[in-house]
Amino acid sequence: MEMKTEREILPVGSVVLLKGGTKKIMIIGLLALDAEKQDKVYDYMGVVYPEGFLGKGSACMFNQDGIEKVYFRGYDNEENEEFRKVVRQVYDAAE
């Protein structure tokens, strides 16, 4: 796992542009497990924006360092902060 605890963990709903990308991506999940490579975990799972999920194969997985620009930060509250603490613990345990 590549994400470090000092890095910001973007909330679900955030909209980003990936390096080399032309379409915006909306984050729909954290700690995304690659179905084909069960030992590979990505920081985020996303779908193209504004289209969203278009069926099997339309989601992508990427890491924090693949993000070029953040266009919109998703909804954030105390519940989300508690969830991100758990995510940080998972990353700390993996390092």
Number of helices: 1
What structural class results from the helix and strand content?
A: alpha+beta
Topology as H/E string?
EEEEEH
Radius of gyration: 13 Å
* Unreliable segments of 5+ consecutive residues: 1-5
**How far apart, in Å, are the first and last alpha carbons?**
7 Å
Oligomer: single chain
How do the strands of the widest beta sheet line up side by side?
Answer: 4-3-2-1-5
Helix content: 10-25%
Largest sheet: 5 strands, antiparallel
Mean pLDDT: 87
Question: Would you report the number of β strands?
Answer: 5
Per the principal axes of the C-alpha atoms, what is the gross shape? globular
Produce the secondary structure layout.
Layout: E1 15-18, E2 24-33, E3 41-49, E4 59-62, E5 67-72, H1 78-94
Antiparallel strand pairs: 1-2, 1-5, 2-3, 3-4
Quick recap of the structure?
The chain is an alpha+beta fold and about 100 residues long.
Describe what you observe in this structure:
- This protein has one helix and five strands, in the order βββββα.
- It has one helix at residues 78-94, and strands at residues 15-18, 24-33, 41-49, 59-62, 67-72.
- A hairpin with a 7-residue loop joins strand 2 and strand 3 (41-49).
- 18% of the residues lie in helices and 35% in strands.
- The chain has a five-stranded antiparallel beta sheet with strand order 4-3-2-1-5, with no helix packed on it.
- It is α+β, with helices and mostly antiparallel strands and 95 residues long.
